[in-house]
């Protein structure tokens, strides 16, 4: 299970949002995230809010779709009573955990509730995450028939011993098979990779990139391993059982990924994400980076509407109890002030290829741009047109770029 929820103010029992949330809402896209918090085993590096069967303590996986549907129905009423305009969901994302541990029919029912309560925009993107060993061809067909458009498989690595270090249970040989099944079903396909696992070499990482590219997905994500406090991996490193990830090696791995992916026709559009053409970019994740609105459904799920952020009760049993009592599952929230919203805007939008309008930066940030160009961190050509876009070196040092843009 993940660490404690963030500090914040108590959320009201009715879930109603302050007036700030409605300001400018008609001009912002709206997405829905549905968290499915179930896993067969807990990966040693994971600090997401997930639960194995032995940790459910009074909650039943078989009941979960009905609980999530209850929150979807409640959320539509909360937004309406809070004065927000009706907006169809432009994206829907099922994450976890492993959403596909639920029957495909349950996921389709949950999507149906979103459609019934909010509507789906024309061409809406509907994604589910999946482990390669959690779906078969019939499941993928059922999802496509039910309105899903995209599946994101957690490949992580093609090297068995690297997967073992991460406690991943799937056979890497299954990845091309599930990609083919998804394509046959008519779904777009993304593969998620992790680099920097203790003991992983540059050649291991090259093998994983080659295997992922051989499957010809539409989209690839490559994330550096982060060792989170409280995880099994953090304890193993502290005890000296595995090595601490090497920052220099991780930088070499990122550069190799960008080189290989660019050579195979994938364009980077966010620091850790590449796609074969704009049409295959993850629009849901772009909504996060652009500061759009989303409602997060499920235990521990976070939501954001107009600078108001809130989060649900973490344990599935506590979450279900609140819904059964007719109160909001949200247990805490914060209303971001102007300075915090600006910091988050710069932090998030600087990560995407379309970048930031330089004119939108505060004076200190605008004055920093010339130095960032001179240091090879910002691309000079788009900067001449008024937009700040990171170079490859800038992507490797994105946090340092943000600090300079904010005048820190």
Automatic annotation (TrEMBL):
BP-aspect Gene Ontology terms? porphyrin-containing compound biosynthetic process
Q: Which GO terms describe its molecular function?
A: 4 iron, 4 sulfur cluster binding; coproporphyrinogen oxidase activity; metal ion binding
Instruction: Please name the Pfam families in this protein's record.
Output: Radical_SAM (PF04055)
The cellular component terms of Gene Ontology attached to this UniProt record, alphabetical and capped at eight, are: cytoplasm
Kindly give the SMART domains that the UniProt entry links to this protein. Answer: Elp3
List where in the cell it is found.
Cytoplasm
Q: What is its main location?
A: cytoplasm
- SUPFAM superfamilies on file: Radical SAM enzymes (SSF102114)
Q: Name the family the entry cites.
A: Belongs to the anaerobic coproporphyrinogen-III oxidase family. HemW subfamily.
Function of the protein: Probably acts as a heme chaperone, transferring heme to an unknown acceptor. Binds one molecule of heme per monomer, possibly covalently. Binds 1 [4Fe-4S] cluster. The cluster is coordinated with 3 cysteines and an exchangeable S-adenosyl-L-methionine.
Name of the protein:
Heme chaperone HemW
